Amino acid sequence: MNVPAAMLRTVFALACLVAWGCTGDEPVAAPGPDAFPGSAASLDDLGEQAIAAFAAGDTARLVALRLSEVEHNEVVFPELPAGRPEVGYPVDLAWENIVLRNDRDVLRQFRWFGERESVHHLATECTGETQSFETFVVHTGCAVRFEDADEGVLEVVLFEDVLERDGGFKVFRFYDHTPQRLGAS
């Protein structure tokens, strides 16, 4: 059988990518079975999806990236210090506070990102304290670095706190911080 050289190169390239990871990028494992639905596979994946959703005006994707009411009220809040029975903080008030602030701040971010023609995610980092709870970890001090075709390299706090559960990452709520220029691209 005579196989054309171009076809062999294509097959080899695909095999290299799939079997041997020839791109040099580390593979990102999919979130585990206990991760919340809609979770991102990594902090970078979360930041990349959030930037893309803001740039596209995709509210449904932003909702999927944020903790749902059930996730917050039934799993997360009971493990937080404010959720301890002796504190007596009402879970419905905590959730209402998240929703009100999130919805306001998402609209403000849409105004900024709605004027952009091309944005490209560069990195997402959480440099604050990491807090471990029984079934999840909270990363704090999070910021997303991205490149804008007109503004260059920028950094923005789209979300300050990220919940990690079984390899899945979700946002507590979105913020309306203005992107800050970091330097020329």
Order of helices and strands: HHHHHEEEEEEEE
Report the strand count.
8
Strand proportion, as a percent range, falls in 15-25%
- Fraction of helical residues: 25-40%
Care to describe what's here?
The protein is α+β, with helices and mostly antiparallel strands. Helix content is 37%, strand content 21%. It has five helices and eight strands; from the N terminus they run αααααββββββββ. The strands form two sheets. It has a four-stranded antiparallel beta sheet, with helices on one face. Strands 2-3-6-7 form a four-stranded antiparallel beta sheet, with no helix packed on it. A hairpin with a 3-residue loop joins strand 4 and strand 5. Helix 2 (43-56) runs antiparallel to helix 3 (59-65). The longest helix has 23 residues, at 91-113. It starts with a helix and ends with a strand.
